[in-house]
Amino acid sequence: MKIVDVVCAKGRTGFYFDDQRAIKAGAEHDGFTYLGQPITPGFKAVRQAGEAVSVMIILEDGQIAYGDCAAVQYSGTGGRDPLFLAEDFIPVIEKMIKPRLVGRELVSFKQLAEEIDNLHDENGKRIHTALRYGVTQAILDAVAKAKKQLMCEVIAAEYNTQVSDKEIAIFTQSGDDRYNNVDKMIIKHAEVLPHGLINNVREKLGENGELLVEYVKWLRDRVAKLRTTADYAPVLHIDVYGTIGLAFNNDIDRMVEYFRKLEQAAAPLTLRIEGPVDVEDRDKQIAVLAEITSRLRRENIRVEIVADEWCNTYEDIKEFADKGAGDMLQIKTPDLGGINNIIESVLYCKQKGVGAYQGGTCNETDRSAQVCVHIAMATQPVQMLAKPGMGVDEGYMIVYNEMQRILAVRKARKSA
């Protein structure tokens, strides 16, 4: 089966692009948006609508496969590629990618995805991560349609894995509405919750961490109050954006004792803390997370550490996994470029005995989320993110429903 055309459409994402530099510099909230001027190149406002490009691959039998190019909320910072605007990058697809795909036989996803993922522009720079992300999604869908298989089945065949016969745990994110949204999560029996967005010491963590301790206690009690079955015991997973390090001056001893308090506040539920510190250097980040992780294990403090910042690429993930820098690593899907790297990252974490969290961003699309479900079902990470958006219901619905479709189709095939 050959590719006969590649067509692009401008799209919207499930959230927004935010200028992180301007926000950190003090841009003030004004309703749902921000006041002040943007700082990061490419931004026209501190908060602006998220954009995507839907890449459609036309097969010779008339079938249409597609994937969505999208980038994270805080684009253009932390070593990431610049702001991803559809009008800037559709011409790149037309000029550089379409000629490489039209006429190609759809034999191997892995081979064609790796070719696109390693594509460089005329200046010798690798093409934007969002382009690699979306185009490789479309390639996976195209190969699946050519072979009359599910996308997860193509991955399993090419990477020698087994498609899961049960759901992967879904992690829901609350945004700043960290109380009402938790009720939604509990009602829907989300397996992992609530993310929490604890990104400010004074307002959300507390100068001595006291606000987060109270919030964890509230989560524990809210689960007990609202659950409808006695066996519902979700994992509490909270992203603190380095604020624990800020509050305790990166003092390992003080942080370890604080984790003991958090463990007690969460009991009997399992607690994961994502991004406890951010020392703004990859090698230093690996060292401090490895030390915290090993200390908690030695002292039998049952809080799991999740790495996020500075763990952006497949190469980063290998370094964090090799050094034991966290009990779990977030694989932030758009930052890895080609989805072949997501697959390899999950498999590497599993090989090293490190928890794989197949994450992403609120600023993705329904399509990128659906394709990520197929990746998760084929590679079986510990959990995957409900996405896009911050409203809980929409992202959870998209991920949960795609997972159930896969399970139902494969079960029906086996019965037949």
Explain the overall architecture.
The chain has 416 residues and is α/β, with parallel strands linked by helices. Helices cover 44% and strands 17% of the residues. It is built from 15 helices and 13 strands. Helix 14 packs across helix 15 (393-415). The mean pLDDT is 96.
Protein traits:
three-stranded antiparallel beta sheet, eight-stranded parallel beta sheet, single chain, 44% helix, alpha/beta
Helix-strand blueprint:
Blueprint: E1 3-18, H1 20-24, E2 29-30, E3 33-34, E4 47-59, E5 64-69, H2 86-101, H3 109-117, H4 129-147, H5 151-159, E6 169-171, H6 180-187, E7 192-195, H7 201-205, H8 210-226, E8 235-239, H9 243-247, H10 252-266, E9 271-274, H11 282-298, E10 303-307, H12 314-322, E11 328-331, H13 339-352, E12 355-358, H14 366-379, E13 383-385, H15 393-415
Parallel strand pairs: 6-13, 7-8, 8-9, 9-10, 10-11, 11-12, 12-13
Antiparallel strand pairs: 1-4, 2-3, 4-5
Helix pairs in contact: 3-4, 4-5, 5-14, 6-8, 8-10, 10-11, 12-13, 13-14, 14-15
Measured as a percent range, the helix fraction is 40-55%
Give the termini separation. Answer: 27 Å
Mean of residue pLDDT values: 96
Largest sheet, spatial ordering of strands: 6-13-12-11-10-9-8-7
Count of DSSP E strands? 13
Task: Name the poorly predicted regions.
Answer: none
In percent terms, what proportion of residues is strand?
15-25%
Helix count equals 15
Please tell me what the overall shape is. globular
Question: How can the largest sheet be summarized?
Answer: 8 strands, parallel
Radius of gyration: 21 Å
Secondary-structure element sequence?
A: EHEEEEHHHHEHEHHEHHEHEHEHEHEH
